[in-house]
C-alpha cells in the first residue's frame, strides 16, 4: 500500500522514455527503426518528439531521516511518522530521536526513487535538461537548487547562522570536512504545528533597557551612549565569550529580577523560558542569554512562516515545520550545543547581519500563487531565486490545478490523502497521494490535486 498505485495512464503524444542513452541511441540505425513509426505519427509537432513519458517526469521519492538529539522521540516525531509511510523497512524505535526528514539530492541524507532505490541525484544527473530545466542548468549550478526537509523539534537547535556565499566558499576551501559545499543557505520554515523560534534581532530600543541591569551592563562596550548595530554585534560577541560561571550568575539574577522590568519591554517570556532553556542545555550556555536578551521570540501557528537570510541569526525551539533552503549544509554554531560543537565566536559575531530587527522583519507572509487555478494554493516567496514554497490546502471534495513551472518541484503530502493527475506534453498520469508521500515533478508538468477527505501538500518549486 505504500507504493503509488497508478490509477490510470494515458500517454497521448510522444511515447518514449528519454534517458540519455535513448538520445544517443537514436543516432544508430537500429534505434532509428524503433523510433521510425512514432516519428511518422501525424499531429505530433517535432518539438514534442522524444520528450519524456510522465513516468520519468513525475516519480515518488523516499526521504532520509536523521537522529540529532534535539529531535522528537519515537512516534512523537512527525519526521519519523512521515518516513514510515513510504518505507516499510523503517522501524520507529521509542527511545530514538528523529529530528529531520530530508528529501532533496544533497549527499548527506539523500532522497531515493522509491520504485528503484536509485539516488535522486543520479537520476537528475542523467537527464538534467528534462528534469531540472534550462534555468537551473544555466543559472543555478545544474543541481536541484533547493533542499526541503521536515523538522520535528523537541528542544532548541543550536543558535546558528548560515554563512553567505563568500564566507562559505572560504570555509569550504580551508575545511571541506566541516563545510561540505561553497554555497549560502538562506532558509524558510513553514509551521505545521505551533512553532516556537528565536529569529533575527529585536528592535534596539527593546534590547538596550535590559542591558541597563547591573548584571548585564558589563557586556556593553564602554562609552556607549547610543546603541547601534555595531553595539549589538559587540554585545553578542561579549556574551558568547563570557565565562561559564558568570553566565550562570547572570541567569540567576535575571530569574530574580522584578517582573515589571520585563513587562515594560514586552519581554515577560524571558522569565518563562529561562528555566526551560537551562534544563535543556544547562545554566552555563551563553546561547540562553543571547537568545533571550537580543532576539525576537515568536510562536507561529500552522501555516505561518519565517525567512532567515544568509548570516541571519536563529534558533528553532519547538514544533513541527516544513523547511526549505538553498542547496547547502553550512552552519556556524555558537550556543545550545556542547562547547566542542561551537565555531569561532569572532567569526560568528563578525558575520552577523542586522537586516531583521523586529518580528515583522522575520515573518514571511504567503500570497495566492499565480500558478493556482482555484486559489487554494498559496506561495511563500523568499527574496532569493533558488526556490519558492507552495502550500495547497483542500477540504473534502475540493481540487486545485497548479500550472507547470520552469524548474523542478518536490512535494510532500503533509496531511490527508487524495489523487494527483500530472500532465505535460509527455501525456497524463494519475497517482495516489497519502500522508508522507513525496514526489518529484519535472519542469513543464502541471498537476491537479484533488481529495475526498481533505489534504494538504507542500511543494518546493523554482
Ligand atoms: Zn538554520
Structure description:
The protein has 462 residues and is of the alpha+beta class. It has 2 domains: 1-63 and 134-143 and 368-462, Jelly Rolls (Sandwich), CATH 2.60.120.10; 146-355, Jelly Rolls (Sandwich), CATH 2.60.120. Helix content is 27%, strand content 27%. The chain is built from 16 helices and 24 strands. Strands 1, 2, 7, 16, 17, 18, 19, 20, 21, 22, 23 and 24 form a 12-stranded antiparallel beta sheet that branches. Strands 3, 6, 8, 10, 11, 12, 13 and 14 form an 8-stranded antiparallel beta sheet that branches. A two-stranded antiparallel sheet has the order 4-5. Helix 10 runs antiparallel to helix 15. It is elongated and about 70 Å long. The chain starts with 8 loop residues before the first strand and ends with a strand. Residues 1-50 have low confidence and may be disordered. Bound molecules: zinc ion. Zinc ion binds at residues 160, 162, 187, 314. Keywords: Isomerase, Metal-binding, Zinc. Belongs to the mannose-6-phosphate isomerase type 1 family. Residues 58-204 form the Phosphomannose isomerase type I catalytic domain. Its EC number is 5.3.1.8.
Amino acid at each position: 500500500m505504500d507504493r503509488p498505485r497508478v490509477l490510470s495512464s494515458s500517454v497521448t503524444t510522444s511515447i518514449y522514455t528519454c534517458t540519455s542513452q535513448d538520445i544517443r541511441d537514436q543516432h544508430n540505425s537500429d534505434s532509428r527503426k524503433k523510433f521510425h513509426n512514432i516519428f511518422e505519427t501525424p499531429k505530433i509537432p517535432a518539438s514534442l518528439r522524444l520528450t519524456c513519458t510522465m513516468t520519468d517526469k513525475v516519480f515518488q521519492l523516499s526521504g532520509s531521516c536523521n537522529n540529532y538529539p534535539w529531535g522528537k522521540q519515537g512516534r512523537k516525531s512527525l519526521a519519523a511518522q512521515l518516513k514510515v509511510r513510504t518505507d516499510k523497512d523503517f522501524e520507529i524505535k521509542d527511545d530514538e530521536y528523529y529530528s529531520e526528514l530530508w528529501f532533496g539530492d544533497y549527499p548527506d541524507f539523500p532522497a531515493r526513487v522509491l520504485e528503484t532505490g536509485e539516488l535522486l541525484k543520479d537520476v537528475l544527473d542523467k537527464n538534467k535538461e528534462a528534469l531540472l530545466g534550462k534555468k537551473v542548468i544555466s543559472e543555478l549550478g545544474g543541481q536541484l537548487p533547493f533542499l526541503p526537509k521536515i523538522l520535528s523539534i523537541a528542544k532548541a537547535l543550536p543558535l546558528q547562522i548560515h554563512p553567505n556565499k563568500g564566507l562559505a566558499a572560504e570555509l569550504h576551501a580551508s575545511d571541506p570536512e566541516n563545510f561540505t559545499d561553497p554555497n549560502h543557505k538562506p532558509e524558510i520554515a513553514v509551521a505545521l504545528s505551533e512553532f516556537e523560534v528565536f529569529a533575527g534581532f529585536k528592535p534596539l530600543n527593546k534590547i538596550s533597557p535590559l542591558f541597563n541591569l547591573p548584571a548585564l551592563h558589563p557586556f556593553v562596550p564602554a562609552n556607549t551612549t547610543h546603541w547601534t548595530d555595531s553595539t549589538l554585534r559587540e554585545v553578542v560577541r561579549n556574551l558568547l565569550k563570557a565565562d561559564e560561571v558568570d553566565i550562570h550568575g547572570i541567569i540567576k539574577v535575571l530569574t530574580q529580577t522584578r517582573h515589571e522590568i520585563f513587562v515594560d519591554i514586552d519581554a515577560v517570556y524571558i522569565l518563562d523560558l529561562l528555566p526551560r532553556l537551562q534544563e535543556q542545555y544547562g545554566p552555563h550556555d551563553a546561547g540562553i542569554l543571547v537568545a533571550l536578551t537580543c532576539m525576537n521570540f515568536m510562536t507561529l501557528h500552522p501555516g505561518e512562516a519565517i525567512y532567515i537570510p544568509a548570516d541571519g541569526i536563529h534558533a528553532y525551539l519547538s514544533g513541527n515545520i516544513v523547511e526549505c533552503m538553498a542547496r547547502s549544509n553550512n552552519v556556524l554554531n555558537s550556543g545550545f550545543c556542547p562547547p566542542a560543537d561551537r565555531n569561532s565566536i569572532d567569526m560568528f559575531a563578525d558575520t552577523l547581519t542586522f537586516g531583521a530587527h523586529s518580528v515583522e522583519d522575520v515573518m514571511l507572509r504567503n500570497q495566492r500563487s499565480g500558478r493556482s487555478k482555484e486559489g487554494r494554493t498559496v506561495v511563500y516567496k523568499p527574496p532569493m531565486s533558488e526556490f519558492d514554497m507552495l502550500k495547497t490546502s483542500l477540504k473534502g471534495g475540493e481540487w486545485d490545478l497548479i500550472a507547470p513551472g520552469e524548474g523542478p518541484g518536490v512535494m510532500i503530502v503533509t496531511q490527508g490523502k487524495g489523487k494527483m493527475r500530472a500532465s505535460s506534453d509527455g501525456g497524463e498520469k494519475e497517482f495516489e497521494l497519502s500522508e508522507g508521500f513525496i514526489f518529484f515533478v519535472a519542469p513543464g508538468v502541471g498537476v491537479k490535486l484533488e481529495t475526498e477527505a481533505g489534504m494538504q501538500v507542500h511543494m518546493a518549486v523554482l
